[in-house]
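Sanity check

After download, print the first record. It should look like this:
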Amino acid sequence: MEEEESKQINKTVNDLCVKIDNKIEELNKSIGKTIGEKQEYAEGKISENPLAYMAGAFVGGVIVGYLMSRGKG
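Expected structure tokens:
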């Protein structure tokens, strides 16, 4: 009797592991699709006005550099 219960538990655990693996695979595909869409959107916005985004990145870098150098003193 105990051996049958053990086999049933093992079967149930294996079934659950397969279901979890399938769900993780679905989520990975969904996340990948969403990231791809957001990347395309961001690339489109940047290509519309690249100088503004370059200036923003430069100013952000200057601010971060200033704040980091203040912390060392």
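If your output differs, re-run the checksum step. Summary of this record's structure: The chain has one domain: 2-72.
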